[in-house]
Recover the amino acids of this structure.
């Protein structure tokens, strides 16, 4: 039985200062809260984390700070996919050396309409550049943002060349049919498929998904965890209905700013709303509407231990 | 009269080793050859240069090597647009400190469907982060690859806030109507518009373009220079016809690999064909066809001084 990290993972939000630096204390407090409030693990520097909006040095430093602060690296996947091969190698080596559970790696996303041969060359060069058997590399499939994507034949080829190392995929296609095919084709062979759309959580778990890595796990991990651990029972469908209603609300707002607005409210720290350019904070005028719609949808407002906010 | 760099600029190819490092000697020899063979200047680390496929450290080092080797930084634009604001600031500061004529800056290209407000915030933060009156920033508009683009209102706003600093644009939209509108709206106000499509060179010069920054200037700068300096005379149209025919040939091949194959042939250095992943060299099987079609189209094969190759 593989010991690879599975379950509910949040692509953890990154707190930033008014001067667009990573706010270390706020970010690490959020990591710790998530790990104590429903998350089996975290994705550090995913899309929801604004990962690509920070330099390699900024990314290395935060990861080291997290481990120094006592966060177990075996609970962490790290986003390491950059446009420059040397950057991806550096970040991936660093994550493995520090003991992280795995890396979630975007395809190089500057050039478009790339060939499978070119993408294979990139990933082969990355894996061989890192050259470490402990590497667990997860493919980060997110065509709505990266545009570049992983075809089924490319996935087959990567698994065949690097069995055990190429360990899974996060599917942010937003297309259930695609997620379903990924699970049916690859999951039985020990390749872990993590859907990103929490609306498909229950259906995906029932056919063999490894868990879920969804942006909204930053504020809803407890409920996702309940579904993850109890998907066999009928009541899970009731919980899934709540998840779906809440998701509908999020669809009406820019996702990452909305999540940061919720954390800002939970913690009573308005600076949590800060975004790294080119993304912008949720406008003040939209906050009340978001909060009200979430409550109406049955949103389980996150709270700090010993401090109810609603 | 502004002393800003204008004319025919090549987004200079970057030679890479078999191990995906920048080959310094080959690259600098190419820079020197271009500046002696029709180019008024170079764009270092543009799209054709595979600029985003190299790390910040690799990019800084090559630029320093170029200046150390005696290349006049006042002949250089530098590509500095990254996804991470801190990377763009670092590269832009470095280019200004080293004395480069300007920077050509992509919008942050990871997230898509960005607001003009978010892009303005990014560029304002970049310009204020660099904080140097010598900065000449050119916008790198290349929606077919970056997807994120510069709207006319955003350009207006950037010019209004940073007059003289926001100095121009390279238009790689591939849409003549867009290029025409850019020139007509902005060129008279001292904002330099460089089309990327050499098929529009003559037409663009006649209405006020500042020159041309096209990938194929790596192999055709002499001819482009002839049109640039003689666009008022009737014969320019004959030269433009040749340019157009050659462009048609390039449309049938992956552009950057084809350009590297031509330089490899000219120099008799087969390693010039190397590409940085995820791009791949032109397949051997396609080389002869490319070369034959170029010759048939009237391509003026580039040559090293004192060494004719055809």
């Amino acid at each position: 039985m593989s010991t690879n990290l599975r379950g509910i993972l949040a692509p953890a939000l990154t707190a930033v200062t008014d001067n667009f630096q990573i706010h270390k204390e706020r970010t690490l407090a959020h990591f710790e809260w998530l790990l104590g409030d429903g998350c089996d693990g975290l994705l550090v520097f995913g899309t929801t984390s604004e990962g690509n909006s920070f330099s390699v040095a900024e990314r290395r430093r935060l990861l080291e700070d997290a481990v120094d602060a006592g966060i177990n690296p075996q609970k962490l996947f790290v986003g390491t996919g950059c446009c420059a091969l040397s950057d991806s190698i550096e970040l991936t080596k660093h994550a493995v050396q520090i003991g992280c559970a795995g890396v979630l790696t975007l395809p190089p996303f500057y050039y478009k309409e790339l060939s499978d041969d070119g993408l294979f060359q990139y990933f082969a060069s990355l894996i061989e550049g890192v050259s470490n058997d402990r590497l667990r590399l997860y493919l980060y499939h997110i065509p709505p943002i990266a545009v570049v994507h992983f075809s089924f034949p490319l996935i087959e080829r990567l698994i065949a060349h690097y069995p055990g190392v190429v360990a899974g995929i996060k599917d942010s296609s937003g297309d259930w049919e695609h997620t379903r095919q990924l699970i049916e084709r690859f999951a039985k062979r020990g390749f872990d498929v993590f859907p990103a759309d929490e609306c498909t959580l229950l259906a995906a778990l029932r056919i063999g998904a490894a868990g879920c890595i969804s942006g909204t796990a930053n504020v809803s991990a407890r409920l996702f965890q309940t579904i993850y651990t109890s998907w066999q029972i009928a009541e899970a469908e009731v919980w899934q209905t709540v998840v779906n209603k809440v998701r509908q609300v999020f669809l009406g707002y820019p996702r990452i700013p909305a999540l940061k607005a919720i954390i800002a409210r939970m913690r009573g720290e308005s600076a949590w709303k800060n975004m790294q350019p080119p993304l912008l904070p949720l406008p003040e005028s939209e906050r009340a509407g978001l909060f009200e719609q979430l409550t109406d949808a049955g949103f389980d407002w996150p709270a700090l231990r010993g401090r109810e906010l609603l």
